[in-house]
């Protein structure tokens, strides 16, 4: 291991009271184990979002239960960026690729904030809530914000459990692009799931991750409870990718377009939100076909996150809900098992430098 890997842990509803569901951990090349990061962070930090500065991987943003924190020294020390308001449990962070001082932050309670000056001041954006399903028994979470690297005025946000919203003007105005997802559920029984509300459309708007193509304008990938989907027209219409033709499990927690190869797409798949298995899959042709990437690792829980180094295309790590972390430094030829400290459970976020 030659780079630096970060892992963020947070409470999850089905977790056992006997496990530790908080903490922010770092492992550097040459380290014997994981180091808990605490200096300047909230007590018992719950970290559900980690983003590396696009121009300086030593600068890191972390989303916690008390807003956004910034480190300029690889995580040694942290400073609060003072996110305003009462809703400060952060689930997603995205840097504008044109200007790293512009950052979008999504929180639990369905709010999206934007700063244009690196966090000195924040603006609460006016984002209308999608309709289509009854209110869920927990507050809506903005689980992922993704910005088109070629057209940065296009910003997408995935909502758990509510759908997808989109801005075409850098966050100034937003619209709901969930309609076709609901239509797919109505037309296809295998895409129906109403675990929380009883509404059969619910599973299609249970959004976990969004990633934007780096070479095909308008193409966006989406991971939700029912599998993997894509759009070719910036969200106006959606298509099922049919991951079930390749993988025996289809519950999708993460999808990510490689920063090194725009046709390579990674997906974290499992049987369900709470399960005893997971797998990391990869497509090398823009999600037309898929292969298992993790060499049949003994992943013993739902796979939550995949992280690729922006510096080295061979360095890829993934984390499961039960605290398992696996990594490769040679593009999947060999893997290392690097579990978090004993008793730590609830991986939500990872980053890899």
Structure characteristics:
four-stranded antiparallel β-sheet, 353 residues
H-E string: EEEEEEEEEEEEEEEHEEEEEEEEEEEEE
- C-alpha geometry: globular
Cα-atom radius of gyration: 18 Å
The helix content is under 10%
Low-confidence regions: none
Percent of residues in beta strands = 35-45%
Strand order of the largest sheet: 3-2-1-28
Tally of DSSP helical segments: 1
- Strand tally is 28
Structural class: mainly beta
Span of the ends, CA to CA: 11 Å
Sheet bearing the most strands, described? 4 strands, antiparallel
Mean pLDDT: 96
Describe how the helices and strands are arranged.
Layout: E1 4-9, E2 23-28, E3 35-36, E4 49-53, E5 56-64, E6 67-71, E7 79-80, E8 90-96, E9 99-107, E10 111-115, E11 123-124, E12 141-147, E13 155-160, E14 163-167, E15 175-176, H1 179-187, E16 207-212, E17 220-224, E18 227-231, E19 239-240, E20 251-257, E21 265-270, E22 279-283, E23 291-292, E24 303-308, E25 316-320, E26 325-328, E27 336-337, E28 347-352
Antiparallel strand pairs: 1-2, 1-28, 2-3, 4-5, 5-6, 6-7, 8-9, 9-10, 10-11, 12-13, 13-14, 14-15, 16-17, 17-18, 18-19, 20-21, 21-22, 22-23, 24-25, 25-26, 26-27
Can you describe this structure?
The chain is mainly beta and 353 residues long. It has one helix at 179-187, and strands at 4-9, 23-28, 35-36, 49-53, 56-64, 67-71, 79-80, 90-96, 99-107, 111-115, 123-124, 141-147, 155-160, 163-167, 175-176, 207-212, 220-224, 227-231, 239-240, 251-257, 265-270, 279-283, 291-292, 303-308, 316-320, 325-328, 336-337, 347-352. It has a four-stranded antiparallel sheet, with no helix packed on it. The model has no long low-confidence stretch (mean pLDDT 96).
């Amino acid at each position: 291991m030659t780079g630096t890997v970060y892992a963020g842990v947070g409470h999850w509803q089905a977790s056992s009271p006997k496990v530790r569901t908080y903490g922010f951990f770092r492992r550097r090349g040459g380290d014997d184990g994981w180091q808990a990061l605490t200096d300047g962070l909230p007590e018992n930090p719950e970290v559900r979002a980690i983003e590396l500065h696009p121009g300086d991987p030593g600068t890191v943003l972390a989303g916690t239960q008390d807003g956004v924190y910034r480190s300029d020294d690889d995580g040694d020390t942290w400073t609060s960026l003072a996110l305003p308001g009462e809703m400060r449990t952060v689930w997603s962070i995205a840097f504008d690729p044109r200007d790293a001082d512009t950052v979008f932050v999504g929180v639990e309670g369905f709010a999206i904030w934007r700063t244009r000056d690196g966090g000195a001041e924040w603006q609460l954006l006016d984002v209308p809530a999608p309709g289509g399903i009854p209110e869920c028994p927990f507050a809506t979470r903005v689980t992922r914000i993704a910005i088109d690297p070629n057209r940065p005025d296009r910003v997408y946000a995935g909502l758990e459990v509510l759908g997808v919203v989109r801005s075409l003007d850098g966050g100034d105005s937003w619209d709901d692009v969930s309609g076709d997802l609901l239509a797919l559920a109505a037309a296809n029984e295998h895409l129906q799931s109403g675990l929380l509300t009883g509404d059969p459309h619910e599973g299609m708007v249970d959004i976990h991750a969004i990633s934007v193509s780096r070479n095909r304008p308008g193409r966006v990938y989406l991971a939700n409870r029912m599998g993997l989907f894509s759009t070719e027209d910036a969200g106006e219409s959606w298509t099922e990718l049919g991951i079930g033709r390749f993988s025996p499990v289809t519950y999708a927690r993460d999808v990510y377009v490689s920063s090194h190869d725009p046709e390579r797409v990674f997906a974290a798949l499992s049987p369900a939100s709470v399960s005893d298995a997971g797998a990391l899959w990869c497509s090398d042709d823009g999600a037309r076909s898929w292969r298992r990437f993790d060499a049949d690792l003994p992943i013993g829980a739902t796979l939550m996150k995949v992280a690729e180094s922006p510096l080295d295309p061979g360095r890829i790590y993934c984390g499961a809900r039960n605290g398992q972390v696996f990594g490769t430094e040679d593009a999947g030829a060999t893997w290392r098992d690097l579990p978090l400290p004993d008793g730590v459970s609830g991986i939500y976020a990872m980053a890899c430098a």
